[in-house]
């Protein structure tokens, strides 16, 4: 998974910036609604909903908005219904791309996503066209400041984590999907604050491009994430230090 923590950090930084500007409220509310619809409206019994609510609170969404989003998901808040869809395709430099969306209009969303791929030299594929290059993992980001990363790694692995990455800012803990909630809870009980936690699509064999092509892919990911209905975008590229620096300079 070399390089993926760099991508996680870039993605996380941009999400925090968006949250501060209030741009992500609609996306956060839809994520809460979909989680409530799929698993019920009680965050204590629905781990996906608990994660969505945590993200909404981290984005400074008022509790009233969160409660309304849960009500919409459970059918108590009006007729608007949203659904979760995953699209797959190839972006710049033949990079494999997975796009997760929540939408109340499937036709509108697929048109926007397909158009974005076409405008950037890529193409939207069929289900399964790139998913075979990824595996789903729980991903927990813990700020590195003020902790001993080795102690955290030992704690996480003892509780069932499959891998731990450490960089200057973040310790990234990876888990099997079935162990995600348990490991996250164990780290919280041990006193570790979590910057973010989600089910992530991790490339099984990351592809390394040169810095210029890597920046092109990251810019394309940015454009996708700016679409109103897009929640998350995953790619199979491995981000080198040089590419991360070049991307940061252009950001």
Task: Provide an overview of this structure.
The protein contains nine helices and ten strands. The chain is globular, with a radius of gyration of 18 Å. With 251 residues, the chain is of the alpha+beta class. The protein has three domains: 4-73, Orthogonal Bundle (Arc Repressor Mutant, subunit A), CATH 1.10.10; 83-132 and 205-250, 2-Layer Sandwich (Alpha-Beta Plaits); 133-203, YebC, transcriptional regulation domain (Alpha-Beta Plaits), CATH 3.30.70. It has helices spanning 4-21, 25-39, 47-58, 63-73, 106-119, 149-158, 180-189, 211-226, 241-250, and strands spanning 83-90, 96-103, 123-124, 134-143, 163-166, 170-175, 196-203, 207-208, 230-235, 237-238. The longest helix has 18 residues, at 4-21. Strands 3-1-2-9 form a four-stranded antiparallel β-sheet. 46% of the residues lie in helices and 22% in strands.
